[in-house]
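Quick log. Single chain, no ligands specified.
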Amino acid sequence: MAAMTAMAMMPREAEAQLKVGGYGEVALTRNFYSDNVYRYSDPKKYANDPSHGRFDIPHAVIYLSYDFGKGWLMSSEIEFEHAGTGCAQEKEFSEGGEWEQEIEKGGEVELEQFWIQKTFCKEFNVRVGHIIVPVGLLNAHHEPLNFFTVYRPEGEGTILPSTWHDTGFSLWGRIGDFRYELQMIAGLDAFQFNRENWVQNGAGSSAEFKVANKYGFAARVDNYTIPGVRIGVSGYYGKAMHNSFPHDLEGDKYNSAGEYEGEKQYNNIKGVVAIGALDFTLDRNNWIVRGNLDYGYVGDAATISSIKRNLTANNAPYKKTPVGKNALAYGVEAGYNVFSQIDRMKKDNQKFYVFGRYEYYNSYIPSAEQQQYEYTKKKRVAVGVNWMPVPQVAVKAEYSKRFLNSQYNDEPSVSIGVAYQGFFL
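-> predicted structure:
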């Protein structure tokens, strides 16, 4: 997105231009903990389970963009996730360990961006279509060379949609040292919220369209006053209840004879979602340091959880686990370019970062009347290296460990990855 945004800020009046680019990741991991779906409900039983490996292509993305001239620009992003086609067999931890076949619209092969933009000046642009929602550090800068870890940072990637993209319109521009963006988009779906991922799945849709009974509003402001430093604040607000299909939990209630019986039981449940985020990036003196803090709120969380558990059909495309009233994620990573001290490597424009990362996240912070689930509180530490033989490619390696509360088993792993990011044409 950052590369596309920079490109979009430079309209060419005299010459139409096609751009083709993209990014991708290959990840190879060995996890030294149990992958049994009951490992949190009976941790002692699975403490000595064997390790398991997972090889994956988390994301492979193609950018296509065309500048028509006179300030008109079209841009799109097609994403292939996990080298799949949208159909997978999964063993559901939240559904008692049963096997499920899942077919997700947009889940595995998706049009992540498609928008048309009119640029009036660098201070004011209008963008309409399917756009990135830049709430949090990861969503605003989700390409693989914008983080050191092999996989995307877990905290934000667990509690927020990632990459968060939705249909609507955006007003954005740059004024002095500030870049701003304001968006109105289709609202989140409260029935897609769950214990393990908070509101992450709420931006999706199992229908052929995105339900937009309710609307969401997002905003982001970045400041670049200090050389080599970016500081950003972002947020989201919207109502998430009654934003599912069919629209059957809102409106007046009639019996089979057509007689009026009053308002439906949950007509006044709004499911307000409010999210605030603060993040920064420092890139100077051969150091790169990044940090984020995200906190969110879901109104009527206990009622929404009860509705999902008791009123939705068994084959409905919703997870039955409860949603927490709040969620939290914060983290910081820092890396130093060791090759900056070796003249030959420096002249060859190679970089070698030694990095460390710490993060904490909790996808389920319940209200007073909701049940506690202590395993959702997780700390993660990662240490490793990033070698960049050319500016567009990174070879990554890391050792990481999740630390859970004392009654659970910690979760160490080793990962190797290769990532690229750039324009081909």
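The first helix runs from residue 2 to 8.
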